[in-house]
Amino acid sequence: MTDSERKEHETDASTPTAEAEATGEAVAETADETTQATGTGQDAAALPPPQATGSGQARGKSVLAVIALLVALLACGGTFLVWQKLGERLERFASAQVSLDAALVAAQERVAAFDAEVEKRFDAHALQLAEQDAALGRQRELAEQTYQALREEVGQDRNRWIVAEIEYLMRIAAHRLALAGDVTAAVAALQTADARLHDLADSAWLGVRERVADEIAALRAVPRVDVEGMALSLRSLAKRAETLPVLGARYSAGDPRGVSGGEPAEGERGESWREALDVAWREVKQLVEVRRNDQPVEPMLAPELEYFLYQNLRLQLDAARLALLRGEAPLYAESLRSARDWAATYFDQEHASTQAMVAELDRLLKTDIAPPLPELGEALRELRATPAYRKARGGDAS
Length: 398
Description:
single chain; 3 domains; mainly alpha
């Protein structure tokens, strides 16, 4: 219920109450006036009658007539006042009724205008929703058409996409093996190609799968080179290079044996006097010590020359490690042989650290960092020669 309807209902409900209150007040005032007039008459009637005399009776009758006339006039005046006040109340009620009717009409007009505005807005919103619904319908229809076309195209070209992927994987395997010598990547690519051939679920590709299996087996037969481990070994050797003792950096004494050759044998001992003579001779030899060197004495190196020896050995080891990481087998072997010869020539071979380094360099030299690799491509040629390949590519075998 709107505010105008609620006000109209309250006005209709309150109108009879106002009429009843106005009527009740008018009747009450009339009754009061009548009571007063009646009371006045009663008071006059209550007066003691005069003495019954002849002239007095005539005078009494005149008085009574006057009193009755006064009472009648008073009653008429009271009735007239009551009707006058009742008419005033009725006029006020009529004017109030007119005002209420005017307010009700204005309220109804406002409600009608509000309803028209609401209906107008509702129609505009409904029109906007209809337009949006139509646009969504067109977009949905376009999306369904695109999806249907894509599904038809993918359904027709499914084998073509798979065959193109298989060919790409075979090319990747051949390139990784030829350019980088990456056997692991080549095996992974060929295994993926074999899985895609299996997805085709067609016996026409069995010959291709057989060639793929042969190439995977050939790759797995290639010796695995621990490049990381060898690189770490060369780095450790380069760090230990400065701990090697340089040949000729310190004087090395020769054979401390004397000229006589030491103690006489047990069978050479003679008589007691001869034994005493030998003891005396040994005592004399202890006063003077004679040393003999079978090899020529190497001159001692200056400290700056030792620094260059260490730096050259480290450079050779670093060059070998770089060639190992790049897969350059000739440069790796040449650098490693140079480092080995340098360590054997300029450092003390009787020292344990020098012997350990030379042994480690010999072990690294025996390792072939570039073993012979199989040739890939037979599986790719078999793939392109298969009739199913031409059918999947639409007759284009390029």
